[in-house]
Specification:
about 280 residues, two-stranded antiparallel sheet, 9 helices
Length: about 280
């Protein structure tokens, strides 16, 4: 039985990695999904995979930090599927440096993608959700429970050397989520945060000592985690290993299912038992 049949989800950063797995899991439960990625090709590939499995999806490529993107993202869901029921703010990357070497550009870029972009997407979605709720109430129909799941990190809970920008943004995400839970509870919307621990993705599997980079709006951003840090974290994870994107997506799915309709304003760590 598809538990999300008839629901419409928007998932930022869902062309690759964890976001892709989230989109696939939501579609597998029956939701129509608007897939976003910075690059069109991976977004279209995720859409193609969902369509091939009998699901519904459409791509909305582009940078989540671009002016006007949030409105375009939300309206893509409205125009193609009739509304918005699930919002997953997942897009992001890291641009690390110790604080004395962190530039204003590094700080602003990471705060923009991890905190300002989710804020803009939620702001753009509010009129759509409010109108849908009022229409249901006027018609004497029950108001369905809608879901917001914002992605944070254990760095946002406990800090992380070399990530003042990222940790600050991810801590802010938790505050944003709790505020949305209080503001939108009257719309029967739950808002929760999933804070990831060490999850294996293209951003974490590369060696920090190597030359792996990703292209973000024309910037070549170095990615990777030091082998020493990986070993240290693994030793502190009760399950003894890092997580997979599929496992990370499963944690997000929990907050989207009807079983979590009375859970809101919570932060769950998906980290194999790792604690700060």
């Amino acid at each position: 039985m598809e538990k999300l049949a008839g629901k419409v989800a928007i998932v930022s950063g869902s062309g690759r990695g964890i976001g892709r797995e989230i989109a696939l899991r939501l579609a597998g439960e029956g939701a129509a999904v608007v897939v976003n990625d910075l690059d069109a090709e991976p977004a279209e590939q995720t859409v193609a995979d969902i369509l091939a499995s009998g699901g519904r999806a459409i791509a909305c490529p582009g940078s989540v930090t671009a002016d006007g993107f949030a409105e375009r993202f939300v309206q893509t869901a409205v125009h193609n599927f009739g509304g918005v029921d699930i919002i997953i703010n997942n897009a992001g990357f890291t641009w690390d440096a110790v604080i004395q070497k962190t530039t204003d550009e590094q700080w602003d870029t990471i705060l923009d993608v991890h905190l300002k972009a989710p804020f803009r997407i939620l702001r753009a979605a509010q009129p759509v959700i409010s109108a849908a709720v009022k229409a249901a109430q006027s018609a004497g129909e029950p108001v369905p429970c809608r879901k917001v799941v914002n992605i944070s990190s254990v760095a946002g809970l406990g800090g992380n050397p070399g990530q003042a920008n990222y940790a600050s943004a991810k801590a802010g995400v938790i505050g944003l989520t709790k505020t949305i839970a209080k503001e939108w509870g009257r719309y029967n919307v739950t808002a929760n945060t999933v804070a990831f621990g060490m999850i294996r993705t293209r951003l974490t599997e590369a060696a920090a000592s190597g030359d792996s980079t990703i292209d973000i709006d024309g910037r070549e951003i170095k990615v990777g985690v030091s082998a020493q840090l990986l070993e240290q974290m693994a030793s502190q994870i009760p399950l003894g290993r890092s997580g997979t994107p599929e496992e990370a997506a499963g944690a997000v799915l929990l907050f989207c299912l009807p079983e979590s309709d009375y859970i809101s304003a919570q932060t769950v760590v998906c980290g194999g038992g790792f604690s700060i």
